[in-house]
Amino acid sequence: MEKEGLARFRAGADRRNRPRPGLVRTAAAVAFFFLAGWGGPTLAGNPGCQAHGPVVSAPVDVARIGARLRRHEAVRILAIGSSSTQGIGASTPAFSYPAQLESNLGRLWKHAVHVENAGRAGETISETVGRLEASLGSGAPDLVIWQVGTNDAVNGGDEGQFSALLKRGIDAAQALGIAVLLVDQQYYPAIEDLGQYERFVSLVGATASAEQVPVFSRYRLMKTWSEQAPDLLASMLSADGFHMGDRGYDCMAQLLADGLVAMATPAGAASRPAVTAAAHP
Rounded to whole angstroms, how far apart are CA atoms 94 and 127? Predict the structure, then answer.
């Protein structure tokens, strides 16, 4: 489904016994994402962009980002994945989640922020992990946000190989002291083999737990929207009923930005303004 037919814009060691490299174990540098809207009011500008529990599974190492902010240096984030990162389903590339995340973070931190969009529609993990390793070799970002597993879940395949490749990509980043945040699969109403699909969702979570990296649980977030009100989920999806649309990507970017800002804003900084929805063309 994320394959070539949808690859167009509508408009143009045992890790359980040793710490991960670069993992900062202090309360000041590591925190959970408890995101705005959790059981409270909706986020400004995007009614319905809320959840009822944490969508990020574990602490995130924001030491590199925090250091950049203290030194007033540009923050670099690599967003890699398949069509959900590229922005298929958005009305323009400006409404992909990486583009909106860059805008939100730059406005909130009042620092230069560059979020590189390394999404490529249709990819499975075997293709993405090679690109990730090449990207890390050409420059070290402060954070990798890796959206992974949807095409693998749709197409099936070897589950053990999927976990091994996911571990390989995480290790490549962490060997360089770069934090990783995984984004798991989207939920959509037309999943054909729910058991197979959810096994791959679980593999992302299990591998992340073993590797001590967090997961932004997009699957759980979107499935909760569907359970609350099918119309709410539909409003977050594009016309294909599979990819997110402008509103869904905006919501994802808002949640990620709120969490990162809450964790990485230097102590003593002025209170951050609320994230506002992007202005549609």
Answer: 25
Q: In what order do the strands lie in the sheet with 75-81?
A: 113-119, 75-81, 143-147, 179-183, 215-216
Q: Summarize pLDDT for 185-235 with one digit per residue, the tens.
A: 999 999 999 999 999 999 999 999 999 999 999 999 999 999 988 899 999
Cα separation, 179 vs 20, in Å, equals 10
Burial 23-33 (b: 16+ CB within 10 A, else e): bbeeeebbbeb
Q: Tell me how far apart the alpha carbons of residues 18 and 33 are, in angstroms, rounded to a whole number.
A: 23
pTM of this structure: 0.81
Beta strands in 7-164 (DSSP E): 30-31, 60-61, 75-81, 113-119, 143-147
Burial class (CB in 10 A: 0-12, 13-18, 19+), 122: middle
Q: Token match 């992340």: residue?
A: 208
Q: Of 202, 228, 272, nearest to 48 (Cα)?
A: 228
Structure tokens at 116: 């590189």
